[in-house]
C-alpha cells in the first residue's frame, strides 16, 4: 500500500502526520497543531478548526465564511518559518508561517504569527486574533466551564499578540 504525503508539507505520510489528529488524537506541539489546522482547511474539516480554537472563541467563528473560503481555495502549500516551543512545560507558544493558495486563478499568500496555548486539559488550542470575546469580568466564561471569565479564560485571551 502506497502512502500519501500529508498536505501540511511536513514530508511525512498523512497517516502518521495530520490524519490521527483529525481523528481525535491531540497535537503534541503547537507546530503540529498549526500544520493540522492547515490540512483541515485543505480538506474542509471545519469541525476540527472549531475544536482546536480556544473554547471561549469557538462561538464567535464565522463558520459559513470559513467553509466557503476553504471550498473555493486551491491550496498550494504551507511553509512554517519559525516556532518557539522549547520545552514540554511551556503553555504559550507562537508559530510563524506562510500559507499559499489560489482563488479564482489568482495566487494568494498569508503570513501570520499564530498564538497557541496549552490549557489545564493539556491540549493545545489556537488563539484566534480575529475573534473578540465581549464579556464583563464577573460574567460566565464563554468556554462554558461554569467559572467567571476572570477566573478562567480572561488572562489567556489577553495574550493575543505575537512579538
UniProtKB/TrEMBL annotation:
Describe the location of the YchJ-like middle NTF2-like domain by residue ranges: 29-128
InterPro entries linked: NTF2-like_dom_sf (IPR032710), SEC_C_motif (IPR004027), YchJ-like_M (IPR048469)
According to the lineage, what is the superkingdom?
Bacteria
List where this protein forms a coiled coil.
Answer: none
Record's NCBIfam families?
Answer: PRK00183.1 (NF001213), PRK01752.1 (NF002486)
- The name this protein carries in UniProt is YchJ family protein
Organism in which the protein naturally occurs? Thiopseudomonas alkaliphila
Amino acid at each position: 500500500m502506497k502512502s500519501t504525503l500529508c498536505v501540511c508539507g511536513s514530508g511525512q505520510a498523512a497517516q502518521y502526520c495530520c490524519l490521527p489528529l483529525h481523528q481525535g488524537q491531540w497535537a503534541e506541539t503547537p507546530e503540529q497543531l498549526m500544520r493540522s489546522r492547515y490540512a483541515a482547511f485543505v480538506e474542509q474539516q471545519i469541525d476540527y478548526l472549531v475544536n482546536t480554537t480556544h473554547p471561549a472563541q469557538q462561538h464567535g467563528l464565522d463558520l459559513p465564511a470559513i467553509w466557503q473560503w476553504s471550498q473555493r481555495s486551491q491550496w498550494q502549500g504551507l511553509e512554517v518559518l519559525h516556532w518557539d516551543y522549547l520545552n514540554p512545560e511551556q503553555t504559550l507558544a507562537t508559530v510563524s508561517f506562510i500559507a499559499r493558495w489560489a482563488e479564482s486563478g489568482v495566487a494568494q499568500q498569508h503570513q501570520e504569527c499564530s498564538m497557541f496555548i496549552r490549557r489545564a486539559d493539556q491540549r493545545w488550542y489556537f488563539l484566534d486574533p480575529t475573534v473578540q470575546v465581549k464579556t464583563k469580568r464577573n460574567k460566565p466564561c464563554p468556554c462554558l466551564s461554569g467559572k467567571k471569565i476572570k477566573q478562567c479564560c480572561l488572562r489567556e485571551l489577553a495574550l493575543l499578540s505575537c512579538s
